[in-house]
Amino acid sequence: MTLADLELAQEAVIQDFENNSQAIKRLLSFGIEPGSIVKLEFQTFQKGTICISNKNRMIALDAAEASKITVTPNP
Prior knowledge:
With 75 residues, the protein is an alpha+beta fold. It has helices at 22-29, 63-66, and strands at residues 11-17, 37-43, 49-54, 57-62, 69-73. Strand 3 and strand 4 form a beta hairpin. The model has no long low-confidence stretch (mean pLDDT 91).
């Protein structure tokens, strides 16, 4: 499962990043790394862009970048 697969308001734990893209570097700069819990806050029509939250931060990602970030649902 990837960030792009999350449902609205669903929480997940970051497992891995597929490659070393700019978006991933940005996530790391915000302290979001494997093991971090994130929540899908909102998404644009047809999931072109998503917004996740972590520790009172909100970060926007395009769907292509979100699909490169592996997550597991947070129970």
